[in-house]
Amino acid sequence: MELAVALAIGVLTAAGVYLLLRARSFEVILGLTFLSYATNLLIFSAGRLRMGQPPVLRDGLAPTLVHHTDPLPQALVLTAIVIAFAMTAVTIVVAIRSHADNGDDHADAGPGAPRA
Amino acid sequence: MSHLPALPILLPLFTAAVLLLAERRGIAPQRAVSATGLALLLAAAMALAARVDGGIPLVYLVGDWPARLGIALVADRLGALMVLVTVLLAVPCLLHACGGGWDRRVPHFHALFQLQLAGLSGAFLTGDLFNLFVFFEVLLIASYGLLLGGGRGARMRAGLHYIAFNITASTLFLIALGLLYGMTGTLNMAEMALRVAALPAGDVPLVRAAAGLLLVVFCAKAALLPLHLWLPQTYARAPAAVAALFAVMTKVGVYAVLRVYALVFGTQAGPLAGWAWDWLLPAGIATLALAALGAVAARGLRMLAGYLVIASAATLFVAIALATPDAVGAGLYYLVHSTFAAAALMLLADAARRAGVTRRAAPALAYVVVAVSIAGLPPLSGFIGKALLLQAVPPQQTVAVWAAVLGTSLLMVVALARAGVRAFWEPAGRAPSTADVEPAAPPADPARTPWPQSLALALLVGYGVALAVAAAPVQRFARAAAVQALEPAAGIEAVRATAPRVRAPSP
Question: How many angstroms separate the CA atoms of B157 and B165, rounded?
Answer without folding.
Answer: 12
